[in-house]
Amino acid sequence: MKNILVPVEDHHSIASVLRTAQLAGERFGSRIEGIPLGPDFQIAMDYGIAVTINNHDFRRDMEDQARRIFETFAAGLKLSSSSADPALDFAWNANGLVTDIQIGSYGRIFDLVVVGRPGPDVHDARHSTLEAALFDSGRPILIAPPVATDFLGNIIAVSWNASSETARTLSMAMPFLKTAQKIVIISVSGAMVTGPSAELLATTLERQGLPVDLKIVDDTSSNAGRTILSQATKIGADLLIKGGYTQSRLRQMIFGGATSQILAEATIPVFMAH
């Protein structure tokens, strides 16, 4: 996790996004690159403001605002003792404002992309940013909650449903797993697909010397996401590892699903891949 990308724009949770990136960067001695993110062009077309967004002065103002947010945060760390790892480095990408689609493409050369938890308000982080990073980068994402946490990766909750998406996510999350003090595998009976059991996963992780506990929840309700979040809270987890969208996005939009519930309600950082 030496290279971390952070799309920067002025939304409600940007302070938490930067703090979450900092915590990850301190854990691995990373280079954190900020990049200015502009509005999604299709959304702009829908609202009839595409001409404004294409205006040079407007775009420059958005770039300058994003850079101030990023550099103010980085400067604050340098003036305090909160940055525990001297190898932590902040760098600004000055190549201009990018779109969500470009974040998905550029993120392919990074180890991790840190984004905000989406919300319904116009000033919340956007779903389109998260989905571009998740589906188009081929890399894992770290989703920051609306309010930053004090720790990241000491106690990790792993949501195991036996899916290939979760298996890939676990593989990408191994740097976090190897530095954790405690790992708890949470398996919700009503949310499993055909595949290896949570007990088998625990055995394979234990062979790698990882400190693993197991929590199997007998719950066949439709609220698997809330059950996972509740169990993560009970164990004091400061990071949740979850495969993204085992069901299709369309099905989750219509019927709901664990990923959708977690994206709507998580109060701790979520490490996710697809």
Q: What do these coordinates show?
A:
The chain has 274 residues and is α/β, with parallel strands linked by helices. It folds into two domains: 3-144, Rossmann fold; 155-273, Rossmann fold, CATH 3.40.50. 42% of the residues lie in helices and 19% in strands. The chain contains twelve helices and ten strands. The chain has helices spanning 14-28, 41-47, 50-53, 56-78, 100-106, 127-136, 164-172, 174-178, 198-207, 224-234, 249-255, 258-265; strands at residues 3-8, 31-36, 89-92, 112-116, 141-144, 155-159, 182-188, 212-217, 239-243, 270-273. The protein has a ten-stranded mixed β-sheet with strand order 3-2-1-4-5-10-9-6-7-8, with helices on both faces. Helix 9 links the parallel strand 7 (182-188) and strand 8. Helix 10 crosses helix 12 (258-265). The longest helix has 23 residues, at 56-78. The radius of gyration is 19 Å and the shape is globular. It starts with a strand and ends with a strand.
Question: Which SSEs are present, and which pair or pack?
Answer:
Layout lengths: L2 E6 L5 H15 L2 E6 L4 H7 L2 H4 L2 H23 L10 E4 L7 H7 L5 E5 L10 H10 L4 E4 L10 E5 L4 H9 L1 H5 L3 E7 L9 H10 L4 E6 L6 H11 L4 E5 L5 H7 L2 H8 L4 E4 L1
Parallel strand pairs: 1-2, 1-4, 2-3, 4-5, 6-7, 6-9, 7-8, 9-10
Antiparallel strand pairs: 5-10
